[in-house]
Design goal:
Blueprint (H helix, E strand, L loop, with lengths): L7 H25 L8 H13 L3 H20 L1 H21 L9 H21 L7 H11 L5 H19 L3 H23 L3 E8 L3 H12 L3 E7 L6 E9 L4 H11 L4 E8 L11
Length: 285
């Protein structure tokens, strides 16, 4: 079998993946584990076991992940699987490596927020490299294959809830469980921002009896591409043309003025879009 030579993009992707794992490990070792915040997933379970046995969190995470990886390798494919294996091993090593650093704070709220933020940024970077850190993601895929009517997201939620509940009983503290939920929420929101991007734009959908005039004016004044889609009003049965234009938020007032001046009766609605690639916006990575 011919082995493909790694490209600069491949190397950069691996570097970003390792950086993401390092950020996650810092959040876990400096904020979450010292404060007994078990925010779901394999690392949350490893945190609970750590306080039962004093075994290193990273080592426990790796031991839990190995059988999951062996079972789930076929489900994720070779390329994705190798990246996931790399991320899993690197994360486990970093967690135990950073465990020697003195914890930064014992304030539970600050620890939950900072730990969740670092987990979110780190995991988001890993996701952007078409990888995961194994753990509950693989477990969810395995369970989903056996029970297909339950989605992967639902399985992940159930696993995280079970880990948080287990932590509440193990540490005899519902307060710690609530802080774990805070960490999960922060992590999830930041993952979305990292993976989907923070480059927001607007998609304007315009239905007008003067589509050509509106399109030409928008092309001239906004210098944005316009796409015309054929449609039909189901109430009247009349054929209509739907104009679609992607633009930046600051350009919306000008678009509204242009449409209003040409066709005051035009129907316009705006939707949020994220990570627009191409001319006039951001370049492809």
């Amino acid at each position: 079998m011919k082995i493909r030579k790694p490209t600069i993009r491949d190397i950069r992707s691996i570097v970003v993946l390792i950086a993401g794992c390092a950020l996650m490990a810092l959040g876990i070792s400096l904020f979450l584990v010292p404060n007994k915040i078990a925010a779901g997933g394999v690392t949350g379970l490893a945190t609970i076991i750590h306080y039962w046995t004093s075994w290193p969190v990273g080592l426990v995470s790796l031991v839990i992940n190995v059988p999951l990886f062996l079972v789930g390798f076929r489900l994720v494919g070779s390329s994705f699987g190798l990246r996931t294996l790399l991320a899993t091993v690197v994360l486990s090593l970093f967690i135990d490596l950073f465990a020697v650093i003195t914890p930064i704070t014992d304030d539970l709220l600050l620890a939950a927020l900072a730990g969740g933020a670092m987990m979110g940024v780190g995991l988001g970077l890993v996701f952007r490299q078409d990888s995961t850190t194994g753990g509950t993601d693989l477990a969810a895929r395995i369970i989903h294959k056996s029970i297909s009517h339950i989605s992967i997201a639902q399985v992940l939620l159930v696993i995280d809830v079970l880990v948080v509940i287990t932590a509440a009983f193990s540490f005899h503290s519902y307060e710690l469980a609530l802080y774990a939920v805070v960490t999960l929420v922060v992590t999830t929101r930041i993952i979305d921002n990292v993976t989907l991007g923070i480059n927001f734009a607007k998609a304007a959908h315009i239905i007008s009896i003067k589509p050509d005039e509106v399109a030409q004016k928008l092309l001239k004044e906004l210098d944005r591409g316009i796409t015309g889609l054929e449609g039909r009003g189901l109430y009247t049965g009349n054929r209509k043309e739907l104009l679609v234009c992607i633009l930046k938020s600051r350009e919306v007032p000008r678009l509204k003025r242009i449409v209003r001046d040409i066709d005051p009766d035009a129907f316009v609605y705006l939707t949020d879009v994220r990570e627009v690639f191409g001319e006039g916006f951001q370049a492809y990575e």
